[in-house]
Amino acid sequence: MSTLLTFLRVCLLAFITLSPALSIAADAGSPPTADGDATPKVNASAELPKMQKILDKIKGQVSGETNDGKLGQLNDMALELSGNADTLGQALIPQRAQLVSQLAVLGPAPTAESGVKETPEVTRKRTSLESQKSKLDDQIKQAEAIKNSSLNLSSQIVSLRRDAMKTQLALNSGSIFGARFWAPLFGTDNTDGEKISSFADELSATAALSWEPGWRFGTVGWIIAALLVATFGRRYSEEFFAWISIHKMPEGRLRRSFLATTIALTTLVAVVLAFNFIDLAFTRRAEVSDDVQDFVDKLVQLSVFCGLIAGLGRAFLSTRRPSWRLPAISNEVATALKPFPPLTASLVFVFQTVESFNSSAGTSVGTTIWANGLTALLVGATALSISFRTSRARRKMLQEGLQPEARSTLVGLIQLAITLTGMAILASLVIGYVTLSRFLSYELIWIGIVFGSFWLLSHLIQDGCESLLSTNNTTGKQLQTSLNIDERHLSQAAALLSAIGKTILILFAAVAILNGTLGTSTPIELLQKAVEFWGGKGLESLNIVPAHLVNAILCLVVGIYVLRSVKRWLDKDFLPKTTMDIGMRVSLVTLFSNIGYVLIILLTLSTIGLQWNKLAWIVSALSVGIGFGLQEIVKNFISGLILLTERPVKVGDLVSISGIEGDIRRINVRATEIQLGDKSTVIVPNSQLISQNVRNATMGNAQGVATITLTFPLDIDPVLVRQLLLDVYNENERILETPEPSVSFKDLTPGGIVLSVTGNVASPRQVSGAKSDLLFDILTRLRKEGVMLSTPQTMVIERKNGNMVLKEAPEE
Q1: Is 671 among the domain residues?
Q2: Most buried pick, 158, 163, 700, 761, via CB within 10 A?
Q3: How far lies 625's CA from each of 620, 629, 634, 680, in Å?
Q4: Residues 679, 712: one domain?
Q5: For the chain, how far is it from start to end, CA to CA, in angstroms?
Q6: What residues form the membrane-spanning segments (predicted)?
């Protein structure tokens, strides 16, 4: 590439040095001699093919080049070639004029009707001059074509560089404190000035067309309509929806979320309609140029994003109705932040308009960099101002003895992210990375729009589902009556519909963040990208670029946050409203969590550019590791999945394994936590619960058995003691009536009569407590009835006449 560029530069340098000679030759050229052998001093026949060849080579290099520096060199070469072609064409014009003068001296060829005959020498001379003139005309046209093609190529190169700057984040274009950044304002090159003046004249001509007689009334009407929609239309629409919210909506949170959503939508619709009316006021005539129409269409599309910024800001802050404010923001903080939504919307509109103007006018890259840098500077300063004014308002409340609102961790992280992004934008401008600062500025605004819309709409969906399906409201009562369903099923349906709606919103938010950017995507385009993205096409076409790395980090953070939110929703909201036991609920949540983390990791890798069908090397590497050191981990992981699916044991079961008995508290990916009676925890690998014998005392809702064995003297009344034991068991509230308690005669020994009394309790966990209560009652009743338990006999060894004799020790 560098060799070809050097060759092209040498060729162009030859043309540059040749240009003065061409001009001198044109000035000193003499008309052809009488014999017609004289030719023009400029050898255009040899130079024009060389120029065309160089132009074709430059085009070929531009088509496959992405480096900004080399594109700049090719642009300079195209401009030099254009100047050389123009010089060559101007050098040929005097020679053509001489030929025209000589042809005028000879006069026109005589016709057959005139009867005039001219000598063959004059005829030959006229034919030679006309041939030379025709050749010069073709050469002048070719030179003009090369000149125009070179200028068009230069414009295309500038457009490519301008578009490439949006993705080449590592391009250092000079600090904002350097003269290079401010050169477009004080530079001596008038090329940009001419382009800007030319496009401004087109805009002025468009405005003049709309003000011609016969069109003025319509122009004034559309402008007045735009002003009315932007002011009174927005205000009275907001008042109308507020009335509906108060008088027609059921009491509850739905009123606030509905009003906040309508405030955002009315602001958005008012701004978009106003810009469309202005578009119709000035560009409704067919004579409007395509460049002007495209420029105005970009402004109309930009109005959507500006309306969203202003509308979301008004909806969140709600300074006119503080009691209806949806987020937990104090009045002092809301008042301090009130100017920033319209200010941010104005900044975005102004500088996006400047960027669109530069693109339509075809200004140089330096002017584009200046506009982008100024945009990033103001956006970064605004971001820092938002964070600083929020902190100052909260400090002022503390100084006045007021308690500011309690901020969640998410709100704190958002403010920290805004502060750090603002500082990164300003730092990038200082060190010269204008493209990076512009990217961060627009990504900050775009992510704010996406997350703000998601938060507002998710609250509206959740509140709407809960309110409309609640039996406290008319709609819920009608549904319950018409469908004859339980209230619990309505609450389950509300939670499920809310989850489906939030899932759809998450899909749109993810696609908007990963594939969209400020001013480049409409809602319809985002919908198409969502279908392609989640259909697999979007994932397979991703490449590793700096912007995708940022998207991957966002995807990972958002995915983890969404997964945890869904887990929390399943655990706290949806599953408790079902008939599942707690063990089944915990198993489902754990299984969902494991699968969710795997999907998030795969999605993050795909966002970076690693396609799913190209991850075979990861599987191969893992297989080697599994073969050596990960066997136990994988075995326990698979065992954990078996435990969660087959559920031989579940959370809450009382199990006994290898002498350990306790309650299962959690089944993790690798091991299971068993809590013992003394509240200590034993970690048991999942593979042991699959491969070893496990006693599950609570499987199938098993009952506990409280059995007490007692030994009585031989002289007791067995019938009396039996009835006494049964009475104690029957009177205990923990002993079940079915099956009935029973007393069995276990054994008759020299030490006494052994009786066993048995009764069932509701759960094995109640056995210990029930036995304790029963023993207290039995001993108390036996003493009251005068029945004694058999005392243990003590045997002593005595030696008589050299022999050992066993003898019962006497009672003391």
Answers
A1: yes
A2: 158
A3: 9, 6, 10, 34
A4: no
A5: 115
A6: 215-236, 257-278, 298-317, 329-349, 369-388, 409-433, 439-457, 493-514, 544-563, 584-609
Same domain? For 205 and 343 the reply is: yes
- Tell me the CATH number at 777: 3.30.70.100
Same-domain check for residues 237 and 377 = yes
* pLDDT tens string 578-631: 776 666 677 678 778 878 888 888 788 777 766 555 555 555 555 655 555 556
Strand partners, 671: 685
170 is a domain residue: no
Q: Is 243 or 510 the better-scoring residue by pLDDT?
A: 243
- Find the mean pLDDT for residues 30-52: 59
Is residue 454 included in any domain, yes or no? Answer: no
Let me know whether 56 and 90 are in one domain: yes
**Residue 640 to residue 647: CA distance in whole angstroms:** 10
Looking at the fold, whether 252 and 395 belong to one and the same domain comes out as yes
Asked if residue 126 is part of any domain, the answer here is: yes
What is the H or E stretch that residue 710 is in? strand 704-712
Distances (CA, A) of 236 to 241, 243, 270, 306, 568: 9, 10, 11, 21, 41
Q: What is the pLDDT of residues 260-276, one digit of tens each?
A: 999 999 999 999 999 99
pTM above 0.85, yes or no: no
Residue identified by tokens 């599987």 is 619
Helix, strand, coil share (%) of the chain residues, nearest 5? 70, 10, 25
Calpha distance 695→404 (Å, rounded): 56
Percentage of the chain modeled with pLDDT above 90: 7
Residue 379 sits in the same domain as residue 492: no
Residue that is written with structure tokens 């540059």 in the block: 16
CATH number at residue 136: 1.20.58
d(CA 673, CA 660): 12
- Cα distances from 185 to residues 175, 182, 417, 522, in angstroms, run 15, 6, 34, 34
Q: How many domains does the chain have?
A: 5
Distances 344 to 230, 309, 340, 381, 404 between C-alpha atoms, Å: 18, 7, 6, 11, 25
Domain end: 612, 636, 667, which one?
Answer: 612
Reading the block at residue 154, the tokens are 């230069």
Host domain of residue 761: 704-795
Please name which of 543, 528, 304, 428 lies closest in space to residue 551, comparing C-alpha atoms: 543
Rounded to whole angstroms, how far apart are CA atoms 670 and 652?
Answer: 18
Q: Which residue has the higher pLDDT, 467 or 641?
A: 467
Q: For the sheet containing 752-761, what is the strand order? A: 704-712, 752-761, 742-749
For the stretch 290-312, pLDDT in tens is 888 888 888 888 888 889 899 99
Phi, psi of 709 (to 5 degrees): -110, 125
User: Are 430 and 174 in contact, with CB atoms under 8 Å apart?
Assistant: no
Q: Could you tell me which residues come within 8 angstroms of residue 457 by beta carbon, excluding any fewer than 6 positions away? A: 261, 505
> Does residue 349 have a pLDDT over 70?
yes
Q: Are 375 and 486 in a shared domain? A: no
